[in-house]
Amino acid sequence: MTDKPPERAQEQQPALLDSLAPAPPPAMPAGAAAESPVAQVLLETAVPHLDRPFDYAVPEEMHQAVQPGCRVKVRFSGRELAGIVVSRAQQSSTPARLSLISKVISPLPVVSQEILQLAEQVAQRYAGVTADVLRAAVPARAARVEKEFAELNPPPARRVEQPGPRRTQLALRGYGDSSAAEIIRGAVKQCLHHGGDAVVVVPNQRDVDQVAAALEEQLPAETVARLSAEMGPTPRYRSYLRLRYGHARVAVGTRSAVFAPVPAPHLIVMLDDDDPSLAEPRAPYHHAREVALLRAVQTGAGILFVSTSRSLEVQRLVERGWLTDETPAPRQRRAAAPLVRATADSYTQERDPTAHRARMPHTAYRAAREALEHGPVLVQVGRTGFVPAVVCEACRAKQRCPDCHGPLMLPPHYTQSHALQCRWCGLHHRRHRCPECSATSFRAAARGADRTAQELGRAFPNTPVISSTGDQPVASVGAAPALVVSTPGVEPIPAEGYAAALLLDGDAQLAREGLDVPRRVLARWFRAASLVRPHSEDPARSGTVVVTAENEELTGALVRWDPVGYARTELYRRLELGLPPASRMLSITGSRADAEELIGRVQLPEGLRWVGPAPAEEGTHRWLLFFSYAQAADVLAEIRRARRTASAAPNPGERGLRIAVDDVASLQF
Length: 669
Fold this sequence. Notes:
single chain, alpha/beta, Rossmann fold, 4 domains, seven-stranded parallel sheet, six-stranded parallel sheet, 30% helix
């Protein structure tokens, strides 16, 4: 005889089973679509704790328009916010009653699933918010442009079957057949031949025009789409949509072009990855090089770094075997290099003892005079303007504006007006006195491009002087003799190479604060020197470079034409010191109270310690955290968690902080 369970237990059993059953789906609001009525929407907001998709109901009349990747408006906490539809679903992930989508801003699926996933990965790597990444990735909407694509459907994404090659290559020259533009053109043509699409990222608009023109010479014009802020919002948005809908297969643009929505990304090319303009100045402060690496891993696309120098970040990947180094052999590099003379070496010092004190020593004057008989001569200066820095004649104190504390300069009309001008606010100050010693006599601390051009015009009469600066760049120069005065990065491209180049103000550029200053200066030297003809026994075809700086390590790398050797040495030096890029780094800058509150929420792995606080600009403080690549995922995930917790607090002071990852520019010693 078996025992019969008590009646009370039998009554409780169904209740227990009901409690274990999943909650019933929420009731949809009236007017919701019958098929896939739920849309996951990523809000376009920089608030960290809102960095996730939220479920909304799709109205029946918007069923066809609401597609993954399109822009919509929704109600959130009593406000109307814009968002991007991530996906559609039949059921919601929350038991709460859903709100209806208010409006479809644009029915075009401007954001592909690949770009959305890439933006999420970038946000994770930089401890940021996905919406901030998408703001940089997707251009501003131009409604009239969308009419051209209203009846079309984007092509399906096509992933690479075999991962593409990952390589880096040095451009031996800055002009002609061995230039970076020619290397890029060859790589892109090969990619298109195999049925893939290409993304080319360059530092500035000048490079966009040069590389795009080289590609358009041998490819149909509609194949190439340019992406840069200088284009203006309407042309830029049209180019973006041409790539999204497969009308163009090659994207050429500045840093945001790394997110170009090509359907089949088989090749990503980056020119001069060490250029500061490739770093996003807005949160989450991502670098286009790291985005390119993430996208190459995500899609299986090949990646190619091209430059006349070598960045430490790329060299680290070469040392680890992740990138293949296709740098030409030393003998081939030297054969393509000009003759380089350093005014600080012992050979020059014995023949010109005053060379290290003169801004343009006799060696440089003689090289320019001899080279002008055979072609143009490049003169690279560190600053633009006339006299962009002023010091006191008596105490050598640097002079600043009494109103805004910006640097004072000597304007061209100083000899008549005796008034200094502020480089920031533009105010003129007559009868200015040094705040340190009350002296009224001042001298130039540095000479800009305008002053240099004026001095060279007097030293070389009857010789044309061409000035190229960021405000008034010159694209190219011919083969006729001329003096070309240029600031770094805007050197005109010579038709047949410069006969000589004078690299001035080296010590002044190296005197600036920052861990990365030496390698950035060396990269500028290599970029300018690569525009000079190779050394030859024929004086009419030979090129010479004169560099004026005391740093023997940097000038030695230029004389040997060995950017890879310098990068390797500097990388291992930083490995010993535990500095980026041999390690990872995070910086927090802001008010001391807000930063300490956020730091208090972070639970670091054992052995890690914050460095700081240290005074920063405008009364703020900075904290640094160094960690290994193996610890990066855990550390950055914890930083994101702490940011979400802090931003959800009643008074979120975290929003006033600048949180940057691998921002080496903040390291100053």
